[in-house]
Design a protein that fits this description.
There is one protein chain. The chain is an alpha/beta fold. It is 32% helix and 21% strand. The protein folds into two domains: 121 residues, Ribulose 1,5 Bisphosphate Carboxylase/Oxygenase; 84 residues, Rossmann fold (3-Layer(aba) Sandwich). The strands form three sheets. Strands 7-1-8-9 form a four-stranded antiparallel beta sheet, covered by helices on one side. The protein has a three-stranded parallel beta sheet with strand order 4-3-5, sandwiched between helices. A two-stranded antiparallel ribbon has the order 2-6. Helix 2 crosses helix 8 and helix 3 runs parallel beside helix 7. It is globular. It starts with 5 loop residues before the first helix and ends with a helix.
Length: 231
């Protein structure tokens, strides 16, 4: 049996495992139980009452978090030469086309988001086996396949994230850093949850949000009362 570290024991002692916390309390508590020496990420896990195997119950979307994620998102724009200047002015980290496609085929994926345009999706589509499993494949539904390259880059840089329910019916999303104050974490969590509520499939029956957990990197998770979200 693995030995529980002193810091882990201390963190666990602050969480009542039999209790369901309000969002506000959970957002403050997640800061207290974080023991990393770096600025840890704060993640929200939402288990939904949907069957992702059914196309009409797939929950996927984007949300602009009020305070961003706290992470400096590395953005690659794959576009034609006439759009390169627009992408650079908007703050894209990498801009190009054929050279970066070749680089990705060689195994390079040190980026967080890829934005492209409809005209070059034929070339980008060939990268599906590499980008798909990593969640990097551009998609019109998430605003990453667009002619308005500058706007798309600005949105990602200012805190827009995309999310998708996995095969187990769970959405995992980074919503903040532990250095954020509790109120900002709460506002980001609220924004994501309200967006997920709006995306409830009409074909999904019964309880929609089954469980909610908030955690930071390497910290225990905190269970949130789902009734408070619906309210």
């Amino acid at each position: 049996m693995g030995r529980i570290s002193k810091k882990r024991k201390e963190a666990l002692s602050k969480i009542d495992s039999s209790k369901y916390y309000s969002i506000a309390d959970a957002c403050n508590l997640v800061k207290e139980v974080s023991t990393t020496k770096f600025d840890a990420s704060v993640d929200l896990s939402v288990r939904l009452g949907v069957d992702p195997r059914k196309a009409n119950q797939m929950v996927r979307g984007t949300v602009a978090l009020p305070h961003g994620t706290g992470k400096d998102m590395k953005v690659l724009v794959l576009c034609t030469p006439d759009k390169e200047e627009e992408a650079k002015k908007a703050g894209a980290d990498y801009v190009g086309l054929d050279d970066y496609i070749a680089k990705i085929k060689g195994g390079w994926t040190d980026i967080d988001v890829i934005i492209t345009m409809p005209a070059v999706m034929g070339k980008v589509g060939a990268l599906g086996r590499i980008l798909g499993p990593r969640g990097l494949m551009p998609n019109p539904k998430t605003g990453t396949v667009t002619m308005d390259i500058g706007k798309a880059v600005n949105e990602v840089k200012s805190g827009k994230i995309d999310f998708k329910v996995d095969k187990y019916g769970i959405i995992h999303a980074m919503v903040a850093k532990v250095s954020f104050d509790g109120k900002k974490i709460q506002e980001n969590v609220d924004e994501l949850l309200q967006t997920i509520l709006k995306l409830k499939p009409s074909s999904a029956k019964g309880v929609y949000i089954k469980s909610l957990y908030l955690s930071s990197t390497m910290s225990p998770s905190i269970s949130i009362d789902t009734k408070s979200v619906i309210a």
